[in-house]
Amino acid sequence: MFKIGEFSKLTQVSIRMLRHYDETGLLKPAEIDKFTNYRLYSLEQIPTLNKIIFLRDLGFKISEIIAVFNQWSDDSFTTLLNNKSLEIKKTIEIEQNKLSKIELAKRDILQKNIEIHLNVAIKSIPSYQVLSLRRIVPDYYTEGVLWKEMMNFASENDISISDNTFTIYHDTDYKEKDVDIEICVHVTKMEKNISDFTYRNIEPVPIMMYSMVYGSFENIADTYLSFAGWLQKHNQYKMDGQNRQIIHRGPWNEKNPDKYLTEIQIPLKKI
């Protein structure tokens, strides 16, 4: 048996944390000396402590670790790690997006080009026959998952898909989560609907405000500021319908994000 100080030195875990694990019930001493009340730990407890440290370093809360230990199995532990892996990847993606914004801001400062002026114009959009997939997804970043599903579905069902693809955002306002997204691909003929994959006619839009966004997707936010300025100047129009997005050049056909080309569209009507 080892006293708490000895166990701390051997495991490289502070006495404070060992006491905390004891208080929370995560790792109680093997024995309590009945004369001195000293906490005593055994060699056999080291593997358990190593698991605790491993999970803690991955970002698991004490309550989560306790739940894992209470229902320990290789399958449940593997599922837990897979879920944590997805969570970490999501966090990395968000943080990388922040870094990209910082780099864009630095570049703009160096170029003395804080205000980005984008060309805004209007055009009419005809009706389209499309194969669509509409879902409420966790956030805008998840749109790529829908496109993968669409491409797999088209391949498995021998469906010819043109390069004329676009996304419709059905929410009436900007949402940080639970986003209503519909991806659409133009098709030459209508077929039978299968599961969430639906054939339908997209209504024409007589007046569509649009702008071409060059470069990284982080530039898209500035487009909406340009739209706001354009609408304030042309107050005979108001927004009327769901936003659309068309990626003419993106990750699948262009390696350099600075050469991406995205078209943002917002339907209008005359007041």
Can you put this structure into words, describing what you see?
This protein is of the alpha+beta class. It has 3 domains: 2-72, Multidrug-efflux Transporter Regulator, Chain: A, Domain 2 (Orthogonal Bundle), CATH 1.10.1660.10; 82-114; 121-270, Multidrug-efflux Transporter 1 Regulator Bmrr, Chain A (Alpha-Beta Barrel), CATH 3.20.80. The protein contains 7 helices and 12 strands. The chain has helices at residues 4-11, 15-24, 46-57, 62-70, 74-110, 143-156, 220-233; strands spanning 2-3, 31-32, 39-41, 121-125, 128-137, 165-169, 179-186, 197-202, 205-214, 237-239, 243-249, 261-270. Strands 4, 5, 6, 7, 8, 9, 10, 11 and 12 form a 9-stranded antiparallel sheet that branches. Strand 2 (31-32) and strand 3 (39-41) form a beta hairpin.
